[in-house]
Structures are given as structure tokens and as C-alpha cells.
Design brief:
Layout (H helix, E strand, L loop, with lengths): L30 E4 L8 E7 L7 E11 L1 E6 L2 E2 L15 E3 L1 E4 L1 H4 L8 E9 L1 H4 L16 E10 L4 E5 L5 E3 L3 E5 L3 E5 L9 E7 L4 E3 L6 E7 L3 E4 L5 E18 L5 E7 L1 E3 L2 E3 L9 E5 L4 E4 L6 E9 L10 E8 L5 E5 L2 H17 E2 L1 E2 L12 H14 L3 H17 L33 H13 L3 H19 L33 H22 L3 H22 L11 H9 L5 H17 L14 H7 L3 H9 L7 H5 L34 H9 L2 E3 L6 E4 L14 E8 L2 E10 L2 E8 L4 E4 L11 E3 L2 E7 L1
Parallel strand pairs: 6-15, 13-22, 30-34
Antiparallel strand pairs: 1-14, 2-8, 2-11, 3-7, 3-9, 4-5, 4-8, 9-10, 11-14, 12-13, 16-25, 17-18, 18-23, 18-24, 18-25, 19-22, 19-24, 20-21, 26-31, 27-28, 29-30, 31-32, 32-33, 33-36, 34-35
Helix pairs in contact: 4-6, 4-15, 5-6, 5-7, 6-7, 7-8, 8-9, 8-10, 10-11, 10-12, 12-13
Length: 778
């Protein structure tokens, strides 16, 4: 077998400054930090006066970034609605900056000798705060820093620049402590004080300043308390009715110096706050009263929570004293889904909330415990579902640039988390992230491919092509002489429900079978990408690799009757969905998969690798009833079991909460993990019946597969919408006796292939064009 070398691209070189916006001077690379110790988050300040004699202000542009997270103000007023800027990127190579137009705030004062104040408060954020489960801090540096430049352009073309340098000053603030995991302490007594200023010094950093391609993080929604009560131990508890990510805004009036403490958690256990799953994350905010009317909002942290425990509140806590502020990256909603089945609707809504909670600048695994990392495996399988629900193109394209940077630095190895905080942790030897792993490292290919399918824009494929090919070549170099990927650590079918909660890796599915199947899928995607980009020689090379690995897979893992090594639901699922079998063995695999699903009494038996695809494997081989059996099962483990237990997000484990109301005893238990919600893609495409027939929905496939057997009365109608690059597409179906009524609305320029042959065998595909159509079958 031909062995390719690993990634020969060099690691990204540190930049000398950001590329200037049109007509603007280059952004300063001088970061400033306090020259003397401060006892709180530093607030940097610079007074300036507009220069007279140049006419009116034509344009005023503020660019800012931080070693930490910052909030910028002009004359005491925030310059934007952004929070937690500049976000988390691979700081060793990429440090994003934000650009704000503040022209309106400065126009009309050019000839008035009015002093303005530019200021910013800087928190620890991801740069200095705790990351990972070993309580490690300061992974990227030792000091907070601010990078800021205001460029004022006048009528006569003159540009006045105010940039961070030693002429600025720093002072303490009311933010006594801040950490993303542990929470924030705010002392309102300091708000009216005249702070003692200290000089600043410049601070070096190596990263290149880059403009973000992704959206900012902002407040998205406010949720009032649904219930306030006293727990058995006498604690004041608050339920917001929804597991969310953000913080509390709290108002109070009490004696000066009194402290209100707010602890956060996703669940209750024995009628008290269930904090054990948080591990080392304190998730606690503290608010010190000024003696007057105070309002607190801890914007330098975030929590994953539904419940809060409030102690020290003066008087009786009422619902109008606090609200939950939902925070995530700004993304337009694109897809909706509803059916006649309310538990299924809640399941879909849980997927939406799981995305919202974990798409906070980085696509994280969970938003609450001492982790919150950009695990590549989670987004590799979830990206297609995410692209149905929201416009995630910019969000994930920016993250993929970090993946590329980390991969270059690691000679082609795609790390398990991006940005890669694990390289700063002491990992157990068996989990040392030193070599690629199927699904996790495959994010380098699967995520850009999902974006291409959703948008039809080849830009992300072109931008990631080197990363995609480097990953595939590294994996090829790891294949054994048999052509199988069977010699490295693999997560495999992680979190198989039949595994011990203390051994999430111990799955029924053979890890090498799973990994080798993924190689074929990845190689085909890269070959198709090469073809799209006009790289025909590469396309032929990668197709040949896919064919060789597929042949090895069939030789070593599949017998003549279609039985696959380890004979479990996941291996059949991947073989079907990844198209690894000939027609005869594919049919046999479908039958065996359906048999195993029935034997399990429709309880989920797949883990991380199989769950995203098992319903598709069933419905695509003529076993739609078994797929609906899985979807509609309410016993544990199942998708609807958490819904029956009151879940409002997708759980990490099928049984994160046990039937008796206690929390799963495993060390790793989250109540907000979106990966198992990948089934939403199948819900849109098969239950709802709406899928792209061509990338970007240039052509649409309308092919609902309603249940027709014992589950026919469970779901009697469904509707889904998709905001595509060409306009809104709507598909709805309902049963009327034995008939199926299908309503389709298409935008101008888009045709749809309507296929109802799964319900009415022999029915021919119809082609319809723009407009509203009502079709009746049966």
C-alpha cells in the first residue's frame, strides 16, 4: 500500500498586524496591561479630543481585541451589544478583533473642544481563565491585555488615530473576580468610587490579529422565573423552566456590604440543587450591595443552568427581581419542524436549545461543567442537523480556521478539541491526543462538507481543502498493511448505553470496524471536494484510496451473508449509511439491523458513532417502521425518555437522570450535549420530507415517509420549513383517511422532486416548480 507522509504544511506564522480595513491605518499590535498589580478586573482608559481644523467627522471606526474578554465604552456608553468578545480562538496563531462604527457618536463635535473617554474593561475569559477538568489556568499567557484603535476620518481626508500605548491608564473595577467556570463577583460599592489609576505597559503576543468570519456573541432572550420556593434544607430555589446558557440579571436593595450568592445547576436531585455534574466548576456569582438600588449582570462568565439557588437576598425574593439572560452566537434561524406528536416536538425543541447553549463562539460539547471544549466529534456528527436549524456557515467556517491552525502545528493530526486545550492537560496515557481518531478528527472533512451541502457555496471547501487532504493523508499513513485502520486509539461507539457509566469507551461495536468505515466515507468526501474544485488528479487518487479501504473492510469484516464483525446495531448502521456494501449485502444488513432494533424492543442500543445515523439506515433500507419505533420509544434508553423526565435540552447520556430522579453515577454527566440530537436531520428530511437534492437547495427533494404500520396513528401530520439561499421552502403533509395530502411551497427558480413511493409503492416521482402546490395521493 502506498503510504503518504503526514501534513507538511508549516504551522501558521505569527503576524505583524491585522490587514487594515479599506482606507484605515493598520491596527496596532500594542497590547497594554497594568504596570502595577490591581485587585480586580482592569479598566483601561484614554481621554482624547477630536482634532479641529479638518472639518466634520466623516467616519469613526473602532477596532478592538483583548488577551482575555473585553467590554468597550465611549464616554461611558457601550459601543456594541457584543459580549465575551473577542471570543475564543487558537490564540497561539489567531486572535480575532471586532470592528465598530461609532461615527454617529462623534459627529458634530469635531470643532468643539470636548473631551471624550475611550475605555474598556478586560476579564480573564478563555485566555487566562480555567479550561479543562484539571483546574488549569493561564494556558495562553500570564496577563490580561487590551488592543484598541480608534480611527477618525475627517472631511479633508485626515485620519486621527487613538491606539493603545503607554499614554493610557488602568484602574481597578467593581469586578473583583471573574472566571468562565467559577463565576463572577461584582462589588457595587465600587461603582461610584473615583478609582486610583496606575500606568500601563505594553505586552507582547505572537498571534495574528484577524477579522472574524463568524458572528458575535450577544444576549438573545430573557426568561422570567417560573417558580420560586424553599427547598427541604431551607434554600431559596428558582426554576426558569428551561435549561439555558447565560447568566442572571438581578436587582436588589439592601445594607451596604451585604453579599448575595447565586449558584447555578441544570437539575435538582432530592429537591436540592444538583451540582455534582459540574465537577470543579463552581458556577457561582456573588454580588456585593452598595446600600442603594443595585442591578447586577455578570457578563464575564456564563453558566449552563435551569435552576438557581439564591442566598443572602435582602427580604423576600420575588420574580420581578431577576431574569435569566440567554446568550449565544448571533445566528439566523433557518429551519423549523412540527408534528402531531407533542413529545417529538419537545425533542426537536430540545435539540434547538442544545445548539443554542453550545454554539457560544465555539461549538462545545457542554456549557456547564469544567470542560466546555470544542470537541470535534460532537460537531462532526451534528453539523448537518445544525445546518437545518440555523445559518451556521460563518460560525463553523471561523472555527474551521482554528482547526486548520491546530492541525498545521500538529503535522496533520486533527486534535480532539479545537481550540486545543488538551495539549496543556495531563491526559491519561490511553487518551493521549497524539494521533487522529475516527469521527473526531474527521471533523476536518465532515463539517465543511455539511456546510457545502447546506449552502452550495464552495468557498468553505476551497478554504479547508488543504486541511481536508492533510487529514486524509495522515489517516492513510496510519492504515495497517491489511488496509484497515486498526492500530490506533479510537473513541469508537463512545457512550454505548450498554457500557458501564464508568467505561464510556467499552462499546459493543468493534472500534476498528467503526474507524475503517469512517475512512471510506472521508475519502469519498475529499474526492468529491477535489472534483468540485477542479482537482481531477486528486479526485482520482482519493477515490482509489476509498475503493482500496472499502475492499479491505469487506474482506476482513463482512461475510458473504452480510454479517459484520461485532454484529451490533452501530456497525450495520455505518455500513449502510456510508454505502460500504453491495446491493445484496446491503439488504441483508438492513434486515439484521431491523432485527436487532426489534430485539432491543426499540430501545436505543447505539452510542456516539451509530446514533446519528441509525434512523437513516433503517428508513433507507425499507425499515421505516423500525425507525419510528426508535423515535417514539419512551423507555430508557431512548430519545423520548429524557423528554418524559422533563428534559428541555439533549442529554449527554441517555440516562443522565435515572428513572428514580437521581443523577447518573458516572463522573461524566451533562444535561446539555447536542450530539445525540443529530437525529433532527433525519426528522427534517424523512419525517418532514424536506432535503436538498442539490447543494444549497438549488433543487429540493420532497420525500416524506410517514409511519404506515403500528405507528401510523402516532404521527398524523408534520410540517417543516427551510430558509434556503434561494428563499423559503415549506413542506407539510397530513393524513386524510387512507390518503396523503402534501403541501409544498417553493421560491422562484427552485424545482422539487416529489417522491411518495415509500408510502405508495410504484408511485412515480413528480417534478414541481415555484409556487404553492397541494398534491393528494391515495
Amino acid at each position: 500500500m502506498t503510504q503518504h507522509t503526514t501534513d507538511t504544511r508549516t504551522a501558521p506564522a505569527p503576524g505583524e498586524g491585522a490587514r487594515p480595513a479599506a482606507g484605515l491605518p493598520p491596527l496596532t499590535t500594542r497590547a497594554i496591561t497594568p504596570a502595577a498589580p490591581l485587585d480586580s478586573a482592569p479598566r483601561f482608559r484614554k481621554m482624547f479630543t477630536l482634532e479641529a481644523g479638518h472639518g466634520e467627522v466623516l467616519r469613526a471606526t473602532l477596532r478592538a481585541s483583548a488577551l482575555g474578554v473585553y467590554e468597550a465604552q465611549l464616554d461611558g456608553v457601550p459601543v456594541s451589544e457584543d459580549v465575551l468578545a473577542p471570543g475564543w480562538s487558537s490564540y497561539e496563531w489567531r486572535l480575532r478583533y471586532q470592528t465598530y462604527d461609532i461615527t454617529a457618536e462623534l459627529q458634530g463635535s469635531a470643532d468643539v473642544r470636548h473631551e471624550h473617554v475611550l475605555s474598556a474593561t478586560v476579564g480573564n475569559g478563555w485566555y487566562l481563565g480555567q479550561l479543562g477538568w484539571q483546574e488549569r489556568r493561564r494556558l495562553y499567557g500570564e496577563h490580561r491585555g487590551l488592543i484598541m484603535q480608534l480611527d477618525v476620518e475627517y472631511d479633508d481626508g485626515h485620519i486621527q488615530s487613538v491606539a493603545t500605548d503607554e499614554s493610557w491608564s488602568a484602574s481597578g473595577s467593581e469586578i473583583l473576580s471573574d472566571d468562565l467556570y467559577d463565576g463572577q463577583t461584582i462589588d457595587a460599592r465600587r461603582r461610584g468610587e473615583d478609582p486610583t489609576e496606575v500606568p500601563v505597559r505594553t505586552l507582547g503576543f505572537d498571534a495574528e490579529l484577524v477579522e472574524p468570519t463568524g458572528p458575535p456573541v450577544r444576549r438573545q432572550q430573557e426568561i422570567p422565573p417560573q417558580r420560586i420556593w424553599t427547598s427541604p434544607s431551607g434554600k431559596t430555589l428558582v426554576d426558569f423552566g428551561q435549561n439555558l446558557v447565560g447568566w442572571l440579571r438581578l436587582s436588589a436593595s439592601g445594607a451596604r456590604g451585604e453579599t448575595i450568592t447565586v449558584k447555578h445547576a441544570e437539575v435538582l436531585e432530592q429537591d436540592e440543587l444538583g451540582t455534582r455534574p459540574l465537577r470543579h466548576a463552581d458556577a457561582t456569582d456573588r454580588f456585593v450591595l452598595s446600600g442603594g438600588e443595585d442591578t447586577f449582570e455578570p457578563t464575564f462568565t456564563f453558566h449552563g443552568f435551569r435552576y438557581a439557588e439564591v442566598t443572602g437576598y435582602p427580604g423576600e425574593l420575588s420574580a420581578d427581581a431577576l431574569t435569566a439572560v440567554v446568550v449565544h452566537s448571533e445566528m439566523p434561524r433557518t429551519g423549523t419542524f412540527r408534528t402531531s406528536h407533542q413529545l417529538v416536538n419537545r425533542l426537536h425543541e430540545n435539540v434547538v436549545w442544545g445548539l443554542r447553549g453550545n454554539f457560544l463562539d465555539v461549538p462545545t460539547d457542554c456549557p456547564q461543567r469544567d470542560e466546555r471544549l470544542g470537541w470535534t466529534g460532537d460537531i462532526a456528527v451534528f453539523a448537518p442537523a445544525a445546518a437545518h436549524l440555523y445559518d451556521v456557515h460563518g460560525f463553523l467556517a471561523d472555527w474551521l480556521q482554528d482547526l486548520d491552525a491546530e492541525q498545521r502545528a500538529a503535522a496533520g493530526f486533527v486534535p480532539y478539541v479545537v481550540p486545543d486545550a488538551l495539549k496543556y492537560q495531563d491526559m491519561p496515557e490511553e487518551f493521549q491526543p497524539v494521533e487522529s481518531a475516527a469521527i473526531w478528527s474527521d471533523a476536518a472533512v465532515w463539517v465543511p462538507w455539511a456546510l457545502w451541502e447546506a449552502s452550495g457555496e464552495a468557498d468553505v471547501l476551497a478554504a479547508q481543502y488543504d486541511s481536508m487532504t492533510a487529514h486524509l493523508r495522515r489517516v492513510e499513513s496510519r492504515l495497517s498493511p491489511t488496509g484497515l485502520w486498526d492500530q490506533d486509539f479510537q473513541f469508537g461507539d463512545w457512550l454505548d448505553p450498554d457500557a458501564s457509566p464508568h467505561e464510556p469507551w467499552n462499546a459493543k461495536a468493534d472500534r476498528a470496524v467503526v474507524a475503517t468505515a469512517c475512512v471510506v466515507r472521508t475519502a469519498r468526501m475529499v474526492a468529491e471536494t477535489a472534483q468540485i474544485l477542479g482537482r481531477d488528479d486528486d479526485a482520482a487518487t482519493f477515490r482509489a484510496l476509498a475503493d482500496r479501504v472499502q475492499a479491505a473492510y469487506l474482506e476482513h469484516y463482512v461475510d458473504a451473508e452480510g454479517r459484520i464483525r461485532s454484529d451490533s446495531t452501530t456497525v450495520y448502521t455505518l455500513a449502510i449509511v456510508f454505502d460500504l456494501l453491495d446491493e445484496t449485502r446491503r439488504a441483508a444488513a438492513g434486515e439484521r439491523l431491523a432485527e436487532l432494533v426489534r430485539q432491543a424492543k426499540f430501545r436505543v442500543s447505539t452510542g456516539f458513532a451509530g446514533t446519528p445515523y441509525i434512523t437513516e439506515a433503517l428508513s433507507s433500507t425499507g425499515h421505516t417502521e423500525e425507525a419510528y419505533g426508535l423515535l417514539l420509544e419512551t423507555g430508557c434508553p431512548s430519545w423520548l425518555y429524557p423528554v418524559t423526565m422533563g428534559a428541555t435540552t439533549i442529554w449527554e447520556r441517555w440516562d443522565s437522570m435515572l428513572p428514580d430522579g437521581t443523577i447518573n453515577p458516572g463522573e461524566m454527566t451533562s444535561f446539555n450535549h447536542y450530539a445525540l440530537g443529530s437525529v433532527a436531520a433525519w426528522m427534517h428530511r424523512v419525517v418532514g420530507g424536506l432535503a436538498p437534492a442539490e447543494p444549497g437547495y438549488a433543487r429540493v427533494r420532497v420525500a416524506p415517509q410517514p409511519p404506515v404500520g403500528v405507528f401510523a396513528e402516532e404521527i398524523t401530520w408534520a410540517e417543516t420549513t427551510q430558509q434556503t439561499p434561494h428563499g423559503l421552502v415549506t413542506v407539510a403533509w397530513r393524513r386524510e383517511g387512507q390518503a396523503l395530502v402534501l403541501t409544498v411551497e417553493l421560491p422562484e427558480g427552485v424545482e422539487a422532486d416529489v417522491d411518495v413511493s415509500s408510502t405508495f409503492p410504484g408511485a412515480e416521482t413528480q417534478v414541481i416548480g415555484a409556487g404553492r402546490h397541494e398534491l393528494r395521493f391515495g
